[in-house]
Amino acid sequence: MSGVSVIKAPAAVHRHTSGAVAGRDLRVLLVIPAVLAIVLLFIYPFGYGLLLSLQPAEGGWLENYARFFSEPRLYDTISTTLKISLPVTVFNILIALPMAYMLRVPSLQQRLIAALLVIPMTLGTVLVAQGMLTYLSPNGWLNRSLLVLGLVAEPLEILHGPLAVELSLVITGFPFAFLMLLSYVTGIDPSLGRAAATLGASPLEQFKRVYLPLLVPGLVTTFCLVFVQAFAVFPSAVLLGSPAGSTRVISLAAYEAAYEDFNYSMASSIAIIMGVVQLIVVLLALGIRRAAYRGPASGGKG
């Protein structure tokens, strides 16, 4: 019997090894479509845009970047865009977090609110901006109602400024932030909060000591995604803001370079700068997470 087992063992090992190799080959085949999508949709366009930005119509290969940072009309768009996108991102997170936390228990109310908040996301920024023009204009529903009620003496000037653009970003960005955070907070085991309650922790202490540390990775991820979405604002800045003044964002500068000046090399340079600025903010957020979060979900590595 021992001889038989010795003879069969190598065959069993061979079959096990062959199965493991076949499994790895299958995983490689499944990864290929994702890799191709990344190459075609991100790496190739990025590389092409980078090379195009280094081929200006005049001057050296860094002429476009030198021009951008030497003209206030161009480099001021960075601060303008950050002034609009960063406060909106923080506001959306601060409002979405407590709302998601209160609705963490599955219920009819949770499903109803989540379904209602999907609507602004499906409408798109252009349709939302058009609705705001109708609602917030001097002859719109809001000002008419306020005038009829005698709450104001003259129509409120809300449109064609940063406030209107920020409101549109809240309308389109808040549902996304809420749904992201809701998915994170519902993934936390509720028995952790109940265990803390049995030890005398109040609801506020449960949030601060149990849920919030576990939510840090989700908060940072949501912040990064909402910020990138807000930083790329374009239709709202044109339709609701002042594209020649207070809401001249960096995406608008890239559009003007490409489709008004027909300088695609300069437009590519502005797009590269736009991506670098977003990357810097995202890296700063990830660095803050690494410095602030030392919890079990990350294994102590942030």
TrEMBL record:
Family membership: Belongs to the binding-protein-dependent transport system permease family. CysTW subfamily.
Main localisation: membrane
Protein source organism: Polaromonas jejuensis
Name the record gives this protein: ABC transporter permease
Bilayer-spanning residue ranges: 28-47, 84-103, 115-138, 158-185, 210-234, 266-288
InterPro entries reported in the protein's UniProt record: MetI-like, MetI-like_sf
Keywords attached to this entry: Cell membrane, Membrane, Transmembrane, Transmembrane helix, Transport
Membrane topology note: Multi-pass membrane protein
